[in-house]
Structures are given as structure tokens and as C-alpha cells.
Amino acid sequence: MTLIGVIALQGAVSEHVAMLTALGASVREVRTPDQLEGVDGVVLPGGESTAMARAAAKVGLFEELAARRAAGLPIFGTCAGLILLSERVEDGAALDGFATVGGLDITARRNAFGGQLASFTEDLSVAGMDGPAFPAVFIRAPQVVELGPDVEVLARTGGDGPVVAVRQGNLLATSFHPELTADVRLHRYFRAMVRSSQPPVDV
Ligand code: GLN
């Protein structure tokens, strides 16, 4: 059985837990480094990235997660989670110098669409996704403003606008909140990433 950890320091935790559980994964809420032991993949939820980084710093959680990420652990970051996975954040001082997780060769711009009142939903076309457009919920969302050569763009707003979903190897990140919709396709995509990263089981 696939065990997925959801970083549960702050933000939209329960919605991710519910969606992953509905997909048949075992889910563990993770607040301390030792709770990462044995997880096959990790979700970094949306919320407020500085608040999350501050809470994580108290227990060294993101240092441990970064080490496991570098060793190949699949991670799915949504909104603030995308910011925490970014190697570079514009106005990086806004994260107050706390450790983040990194790994994605991108520069993120926080609150790039505006503040809370500029939250919106847009039906997005996602690369490789069959069926109807994905109902993407943006809340004080970041944009990917620069990306390295190994980063695959999965979605842009307005078709050819700002980049809002990316994949790089074992890392998946969206500026929007798929856990706040009824559409499980991105979580299913992540679960498939996790499964394909697990060693084959001898039978
Ligand atoms: N604006 C938030 C940040 O900078 C992210 C918002 C969200 O996760 N919905 O961390």
C-alpha cells in the first residue's frame, strides 16, 4: 500500500488527506522529521509559506524533507507548497531566512495575481491530461517566473500566460489548489509518480 505523508503544520491539510484517502492511499499527517520515515511520497499543502517554514524550522522538518527529496522522494507542492519547493523566490527575504525544501529549478513570485480579493477560478488545460479542463482555484497564488531547462511546463493561465503547474523529475507543483475541487486527476497523477518511484515488489 502506498503511504503518502501530508505536511500538517498549517494550511489546507484536511482537504489533501481526504482526496488521497478517497483515491485509496494510506495517509499520514507529518509534523516532525521522524514521521517522514517510511512514507513513499509527500504533499506540501497551500497556506502561508513563511508561516510553514517558521513552524518547520522549530523541528528541522524541511532539512530532513530536502534530504529525502534529493534522494528521490516524490513531493507534490500546491500554492505555498510550490513556493517552498522553488530553488529561488523573488524577494526571498520574505521567507525570513527559514529553510525551505527546494529542488525545483524555478523562480517563484509570491502573490503574483494579487491579494485575497484577486482569488479566482480558471478552467485550465493541463499537459497530458485527458478529458475536460481542470478547474483550478487560485488563492493569493504564486507564478513561476523563470524556469530551468529540466522543468516541464504542465499549465499556463490563459493558455499562454504565466506558468502555474510544473514537473521536474520527482517534483510536481501547482500554483492552484486541486484539493479544493472535486477533481482528483492531479492527485491521481501524483500517486502514479509515487508508485513508479517505488522499487518493484518481488512476488
Ligand atoms: N500567498 C501565499 C504564500 O506566499 C500562498 C497562498 C496559498 O497557498 N493559497 O505563501
From TrEMBL:
Keyword tRNA processing: no
Catalytic machinery residues: C79 (nucleophile), H177 (charge relay system), E179 (charge relay system)
SUPFAM superfamilies: Class I glutamine amidotransferase-like
Pathway per the UniProt entry: Cofactor biosynthesis; pyridoxal 5'-phosphate biosynthesis
Pfam families: SNO (PF01174)
A GO molecular-function annotation: pyridoxal 5'-phosphate synthase (glutamine hydrolysing) activity
A biological process from GO: L-glutamine catabolic process
A single cellular component GO annotation: cytosol
Family of this protein: Belongs to the glutaminase PdxT/SNO family.
NCBIfam families to which the protein is assigned, alphabetical: PLP_synth_Pdx2
Function: Catalyzes the hydrolysis of glutamine to glutamate and ammonia as part of the biosynthesis of pyridoxal 5'-phosphate. The resulting ammonia molecule is channeled to the active site of PdxS.
Subunit text: In the presence of PdxS, forms a dodecamer of heterodimers. Only shows activity in the heterodimer.
Name of the protein in its database record: Pyridoxal 5'-phosphate synthase subunit PdxT
Annotated organism of origin: Raineyella fluvialis
Organism classification: Bacteria, Bacillati, Actinomycetota, Actinomycetes, Propionibacteriales
Gene: pdxT
